[in-house]
Amino acid sequence: FLFVKLLGLSGTVASAILLLSVMPPAMNSYVLNEKFSKDPDNAATAVLIGTVVSVIPIALVLSVI
Protein backbone atom coordinates (compact mmCIF):
# COMPACT_ATOMS: atom_id res chain seq x y z
CA PHE A 1 0.00 0.00 0.00
CA LEU A 2 2.82 2.36 0.88
CA PHE A 3 4.55 1.84 -2.48
CA VAL A 4 1.32 2.57 -4.36
CA LYS A 5 0.67 5.70 -2.29
CA LEU A 6 4.23 6.99 -2.60
CA LEU A 7 4.15 6.69 -6.38
CA GLY A 8 0.64 8.08 -6.63
CA LEU A 9 -0.62 5.09 -8.57
CA SER A 10 -4.29 4.45 -9.10
CA GLY A 11 -6.71 2.34 -11.10
CA THR A 12 -5.71 -0.91 -12.72
CA VAL A 13 -1.97 -0.39 -12.22
CA ALA A 14 -2.37 0.12 -8.47
CA SER A 15 -4.68 -2.89 -8.22
CA ALA A 16 -2.26 -5.11 -10.14
CA ILE A 17 0.71 -4.07 -8.01
CA LEU A 18 -1.21 -4.63 -4.79
CA LEU A 19 -2.38 -8.05 -5.91
CA LEU A 20 1.07 -9.12 -7.12
CA SER A 21 2.62 -8.01 -3.83
CA VAL A 22 0.62 -10.59 -1.86
CA MET A 23 1.01 -13.49 -4.26
CA PRO A 24 2.79 -16.60 -3.00
CA PRO A 25 6.50 -17.19 -3.63
CA ALA A 26 7.44 -18.29 -7.11
CA MET A 27 8.51 -21.77 -8.04
CA ASN A 28 11.91 -20.38 -9.07
CA SER A 29 13.41 -21.34 -5.72
CA TYR A 30 12.31 -24.95 -6.15
CA VAL A 31 13.49 -25.17 -9.74
CA LEU A 32 16.93 -23.75 -8.91
CA ASN A 33 17.30 -26.03 -5.90
CA GLU A 34 16.35 -29.04 -8.00
CA LYS A 35 18.78 -28.08 -10.76
CA PHE A 36 21.73 -27.60 -8.42
CA SER A 37 20.78 -30.45 -6.04
CA LYS A 38 20.52 -28.16 -3.02
CA ASP A 39 17.68 -29.82 -1.05
CA PRO A 40 14.67 -29.18 -3.28
CA ASP A 41 12.35 -30.75 -0.69
CA ASN A 42 12.84 -27.79 1.64
CA ALA A 43 12.22 -25.35 -1.21
CA ALA A 44 9.04 -27.20 -2.20
CA THR A 45 7.84 -27.08 1.41
CA ALA A 46 8.49 -23.34 1.57
CA VAL A 47 6.54 -22.80 -1.65
CA LEU A 48 3.64 -24.89 -0.32
CA ILE A 49 3.51 -23.04 3.00
CA GLY A 50 3.78 -19.68 1.27
CA THR A 51 0.94 -20.57 -1.08
CA VAL A 52 -1.35 -21.73 1.72
CA VAL A 53 -0.58 -18.72 3.92
CA SER A 54 -1.06 -16.26 1.05
CA VAL A 55 -4.76 -17.07 0.74
CA ILE A 56 -5.63 -14.63 3.56
CA PRO A 57 -3.71 -11.58 2.27
CA ILE A 58 -4.95 -12.19 -1.27
CA ALA A 59 -8.54 -12.26 -0.05
CA LEU A 60 -8.01 -9.07 1.94
CA VAL A 61 -6.43 -7.19 -0.95
CA LEU A 62 -9.13 -8.36 -3.36
CA SER A 63 -11.80 -7.12 -0.98
CA VAL A 64 -10.11 -3.70 -0.85
CA ILE A 65 -9.52 -3.28 -4.59
What do you see in this structure?
This protein has 65 residues and is mostly helical. Helix content is 75%, strand content 0%. It is elongated, with a radius of gyration of 15 Å. The model has no long low-confidence stretch (mean pLDDT 81).
Keywords, please?
elongated; 65 residues; 75% helix; single chain; mainly alpha
Give a count of the beta strands, DSSP E runs of length 2 or more: 0
Tally the helices: 5
- Describe the main β-sheet briefly: none
Average predicted confidence as pLDDT: 81
Rg calc: 15 Å
**First and last CA, distance:** 11 Å
Strand content: under 5%
Characterize the overall form. Answer: elongated
Compressed to H and E, one letter per element, the order equals HHHHH
Low-confidence stretches: none
SS-derived structural category: mainly alpha
Helix content: over 70%
Give me a quick take on this structure.
This protein is mostly helical and 65 residues long.
Topology:
Layout: H1 2-7, H2 11-21, H3 28-35, H4 40-53, H5 55-64
Helix pairs in contact: 3-4
